[in-house]
Design a protein that fits this description.
The protein has 493 residues and is of the alpha+beta class. Helices cover 30% and strands 26% of the residues. Strands 4, 5, 11, 12, 13, 14, 20 and 21 form an eight-stranded mixed β-sheet that branches. Strands 8-9-7-16-17-18-15-19 form an eight-stranded mixed β-sheet. The longest helix has 21 residues. It is globular and about 65 Å long.
Length: 493
């Protein structure tokens, strides 16, 4: 598509219809209402990069391997790379439907967090006796990720920035104080910030307080991390076939056969790393749902604009609402701004037509409420895509076909870091090794499944409405949310 759209203003609704030219074809890509979105390209900023590698050839014919990895996002790439490092005698084939890193791994916010449990509170509520171990393993995992990036020379702008959590409502300040108390009890390094201190870090008139956790979050360029892992896999001898969607998984004697449209691979072991996309195991079909997440990217800020907001320490930031925003700086001082809506479509529908909508306009409005001093700044890119979520918010793991197949999924938006841990768990399960990881209750247990439709859609819709009401009502959770809390069920991104 050409770089700049042709946009026509609708004077009756103050909206802008954006048209992109694809060859001689005119493509209507959506309606945007906020003037800052007029020139925003409907594309993932991270993937709109001349450094993107050329595609690898698809699988043709019949092949064999000791391990087949299905999926070329972070989960699959880490599994393939670590397999070659831990079991150098294994031959490894990775099959990816599109190109490695083109889905959630290449279009996320770029927050690599140490947490394996989707945050401190989720871990404390679900696995309190294991939390210290999980925190230690999570920090070790993040440190080892950083070492891999350095050792392989992956140019993904790895910056150990830490995380700044901000409160924009009075009840959220109280929540941060409670969080600080719990972090102190568990010996986790952090600092509380009052209104003056948090605005010294990042200048927004909406901030009432903050909490900064030190050393547990890095910001990265997500697509470049995926592409770097892809090259590391190739260098390690992994055979990667892109454009090779898997159509079948079945027993084949003492092993397994993984089929694509144009070929198949016979293997002794299979690792499934499909995450938000329909799983190859029937037992997993009710365990996750695909959720659409929406993101904007600004043009680079000028020196004067950077001075206007501060942000000298360049932390990754999120606010404390149920419907939350996440944001961070890029290496050229753009602001990535995403979150708020997490949208599930009836029947777990996945379609490119769902990647545009009103959420981009909402996000643009929220951005300038947060940073009114940046009025006039434009967005250059807007995009959306699916992540997977499960009822316990964090990844789960398991085996099938008498231990020949392993899976890890359900990362719920915190997979940049946790997928490496998930890859290690899958390799533990496939090798039959009993490790500290496989002994964890978090690894041995499973979340409750989502109900079938239409109950699934109705339940998720009620959850989203109730979370919004709680944000507006001082954090007070209604009967529905309190019931879900007691059952340990939820919906999150």
């Amino acid at each position: 598509m050409q770089r700049n759209p042709s946009c026509v203003t609708n004077n009756f609704h103050d909206s802008v219809h954006c048209v992109w030219l694809k060859g001689s074809e005119v493509v209507i890509v959506g309606v945007v209402n906020h003037v800052s979105l007029t020139d925003a390209k409907p594309a993932v900023y991270w993937l709109d990069d001349p450094a993107k590698p050329a595609p690898l050839p698809p699988l043709l014919g019949v092949a064999s391997a000791d391990l087949v990895v299905v999926g070329g996002g972070y989960s699959g790439l880490w599994t393939a790379l670590l397999a070659r490092e831990l079991f150098p005698s294994w031959s490894v084939v990775l099959l990816e439907a599109g190109q490695c890193g083109d889905q959630a791994s290449g279009r996320n916010g770029g927050f690599a967090e140490a947490s394996l449990t989707h945050g401190f509170w989720n871990g404390l509520e679900r696995w309190p006796d294991e939390l210290a171990t999980l925190d230690r393993l999570g920090q070790q995992n993040l440190d080892e990720m950083a070492a891999t990036v350095q050792d392989h020379g992956i140019d993904c702008d790895w910056q150990l920035t830490g995380a700044l959590n901000v409160a924009t409502r009075p009840h959220e300040v109280d929540d941060l104080v409670e969080w600080s108390t719990a972090l102190t009890e568990h010996g986790i390094k952090h600092r509380m910030l009052d209104e003056t201190a948090v605005r010294d870090e990042l200048r927004s008139p909406t901030y009432l307080g903050g909490l900064e956790v030190v050393g547990d979050t890095a910001t990265i360029e997500p697509a470049r991390l995926a592409w770097g892992l892809r090259q590391a896999c190739l260098d390690a001898g992994v055979v990667i076939h892109e454009g090779s969607a898997v159509t079948g998984l079945e027993r084949d004697g003492s092993g397994m056969r993984v089929s694509t449209i144009a070929g198949s691979v016979r293997a002794g072991r299979v690792a499934l790393a499909t995450n938000a996309f329909p799983p190859l195991l029937r037992r997993l079909r009710m365990m996750t749902v695909p959720v659409y997440d929406y993101v904007l990217m600004t043009e680079p800020l000028s020196a004067a604009q950077m001075d206007a907001i501060g942000w000298a320490n360049r932390q990754g930031v999120s606010d404390s609402a149920n419907h939350f925003h996440y944001y961070r700086l890029t290496r050229d001082n753009r602001i990535l701004w995403g979150g708020y809506d997490a949208i599930y479509h009836f029947g777990s529908k996945i379609s490119p037509e769902l990647e545009t909508g009103a959420t981009h306009d909402k996000l643009a409005g929220h951005f300038f409420e947060t940073f009114p001093q940046l009025e006039g700044l434009r967005f250059t890119h807007r995009w959306a895509g699916i992540i997977d979520t499960c009822t316990r918010f964090s990844a789960f793991f398991g085996k099938a076909y008498a231990g020949r197949v392993a899976y890890a999924l359900g990362y719920t938006g915190l997979g940049v870091g946790a997928t490496r841990f998930g890859a290690q768990v899958m390799l533990d399960l496939l090798s039959g090794e009993q490790t500290e990881r496989t002994s964890l209750e978090m690894v041995r247990s499973k979340p409750l499944p989502f109900p079938p439709e239409p109950a699934r859609y109705a339940g998720i819709s009620m959850m989203v409405r109730s979370l919004g009401k709680a944000d507006a009502n001082g954090g007070r959770r209604d009967l529905f949310l309190r019931t879900m809390d007691r059952l340990g069920l939820g919906f999150d991104s």
